[in-house]
UniProtKB/TrEMBL annotation:
Residues 515-540 are annotated as: Disordered. It comes from Caenorhabditis angaria. The chain crosses the membrane at residues 35-56. Keywords: Glycoprotein, Ion channel, Ion transport, Membrane, Sodium, Sodium channel, Sodium transport, Transmembrane, Transmembrane helix, Transport. PROSITE patterns: ASC (PS01206). This is Uncharacterized protein.
């Protein structure tokens, strides 16, 4: 390969190239001038390479942006789930044979609270002097004991819809038990969800408390004969309420709202929709990233992922599953004995020792947010119920009845006092019909990187599309030169001149003119002819 050919290629390219500085380097007449332009070229080339690195790094970091849109339109009403904080009627627990072991637990708990641990098979004695730990252990034991009883055997002790809901209206129109779906919660017993059935289509086109769901709920802390019907382990009198999108796990044990008796609780809600980007621009997923999906029948949420992670951790450490969460097909539930209760207690961490913390869901669980999520933000306000002079009025079909017509109480005042200790009003409504949609999208696309690269190339090197075409042409010429092994001729040589017929024709003309000049001299031609011959020579 001839280096002279390469130099000629580069020299020709530098003469007509539009790339900044290159023509200055090629056409410099002094070494100092050429060295200066070379330094300038190296500087701008270095700056371009630096900016190129920044642009490429930014692209491969896959940044995301969130676009916010606000809409105002008719809204579907959420699913409203209610549960009695007392899961089972104590009177039925004491009189139903299926609850014999459960009743023994209640007796052992009452004894432990009194300082006696006789008949203790649950490890209550280990919590002596720590009432919080005693309550927590008793609560866990209660869930384990309840799991040993089938749902059919639990029926007598469960609260019916009529026990809980004395009156129900939606946007001023009556609602009934057919608008609710019952499910058995491992913590709260029988719960009822409004608008969870897909065949229902409750929605609102007006905001405000008058256009929402209103219920008069009774929890039965005491019977109408004033006998207490709450379990000894139940600490609060009221309802547990959850407000979620349809298809989402209720999860009231973690995400519910406590609504106490003797109150009118108004819950205003606002709707938000989140649409998240998938990898590489986001971390959202459609399902739990594990083969053991305990909640595959529910819409995926962070809550279902965390619950499944906690259950796997329980099975790993205790060789049994906690009935508080969903169980897999091959899982065996933990038994209501001291050993399993001790193991479940260790998973919660030591409440007095920070060196023994609870499971860290953020680091020990591979959970990412769902790609599409509907959420309802709540604002809760309270008022006393019933007022001093108000005699409760409910539907004529209710189990308890209104204080002005009910025959279950000795007087209207007695009825009012009973509702004050056992009843509450729950109202759920939209605070506004406007809602926000947050959409996460790629923040730096191919179009963005091309624009930035073009801007940096033009700023530092003066490159344009024409410059790129020129360099492509240079590359093709160099490839062709290399492929021919340097045999591509850049300038014609002596052989080319000798073989060119045009040059031969010129030589023949020259010889003919020389011959004519000689003849003229021999013949003594006049000076005009001599002048003509001289002109012809000049032309040659």
């Amino acid at each position: 390969m001839r280096t002279g050919g390469l130099l000629q290629i580069f020299k020709d390219f530098s003469n007509w190239s539009t790339v900044a500085v290159v023509p200055h380097i090629a056409n410099a007449t002094h070494k100092i001038s050429r060295a200066f332009w070379i330094i300038v070229f190296l500087f701008v080339l270095g700056m371009f390479i630096y900016e190129l690195y920044i642009v490429i790094s930014k692209f491969f970091s896959y940044p995301a942006t969130v676009n916010t849109e606000i809409f105002f339109e008719k809204l579907a009403f959420p699913v409203v789930s209610i549960c009695n904080m007392n899961p089972y009627k104590y009177s039925k627990v004491q009189s139903t044979s299926a609850f014999s072991n459960f009743n023994s637990l209640m007796t052992a708990y009452k004894n432990a609270m009194a300082g006696s641990y006789s008949g203790d098979s649950y490890g209550f004695s280990e919590t002596s002097g720590q009432s919080y730990d005693l309550d927590a252990r008793a609560y866990d034991a209660q869930i384990l004991e309840a799991y040993q009883i089938s749902d059919a055997q639990k029926e007598p002790a469960l609260y019916t819809f009529a026990d809980l809901v004395q009156d129900c209206t939606f946007a001023g129109s009556p609602c009934s038990s057919s608008d609710f779906t019952r499910y058995i919660d491992p913590v709260y017993g029988a719960c009822y969800s409004f608008n969870s059935d897909k065949s229902l289509n409750f929605s609102v086109s007006r905001q405000g408390i008058q256009f929402g769901l209103k219920m008069v709920i009774t929890v039965g802390q005491t019977l109408v004969n004033n006998n207490n019907d709450f379990l000894p382990t139940t600490k609060q009198a009221g309802a547990r309420v959850g407000i979620l999108a349809r298809g989402v796990l209720p999860g009231l044990d973690n995400n519910g709202i406590d609504v106490g008796v003797g109150s009118d609780t108004a819950i205003s809600i606002s709707y938000t929709q989140n649409i998240r980007a998938k990898k590489p621009y986001g971390k959202c997923v459609d399902r739990e990233p594990t083969s053991t999906d305990y909640y595959q029948n529910y819409t995926y949420t962070l809550e279902t992922c965390f619950e499944g992670c906690k259950q796997r951790d329980t099975v790993k450490h205790c060789s049994c599953a906690n009935p508080r969460f969903a169980l897999g097909a091959s899982d065996t539930a933990c038994q209501p004995n001291k050993n399993d209760l001790d193991c479940l207690q260790t998973l919660k961490g030591n409440q007095t020792n920070s060196a023994d913390p609870n499971i860290d869901l953020l680091t020990e669980c591979s959970c990412n947010p769902p790609c599409n999520e509907d959420t309802y933000s709540t604002t809760v306000s309270f008022a006393k119920f019933p007022a001093t002079k108000y005699y409760v009025a409910v539907s004529d079909d209710s189990t308890i009845g209104s204080c002005t017509t009910s025959s279950k109480f000795s007087s209207q005042t007695a009825c009012q006092n009973w509702y004050s200790s056992n009843g509450l009003i729950l109202q759920v409504f939209f605070a506004t019909l406007s809602y926000e949609v947050y959409t996460e999208t790629s923040g730096y696309t191919i179009g963005n990187i091309i624009n930035d690269l073009g801007g940096q190339a033009g700023l530092w090197l003066g490159l344009s599309v024409i410059s790129c075409v020129e360099m492509t042409g240079l590359l093709l010429v160099m490839c062709g030169f290399a492929a021919k092994g340097g045999k591509v001729k850049i300038n014609p040589d002596d052989d080319d001149f000798e073989g060119d017929h045009r040059i031969k024709d010129v030589e023949d003309v020259k010889k003919e003119l020389d011959h004519m000049e000689k003849n003229h001299k021999d013949m003594g031609m006049d000076s005009d002819l001599d002048d003509e011959i001289e002109n012809d020579k000049k032309i040659r």
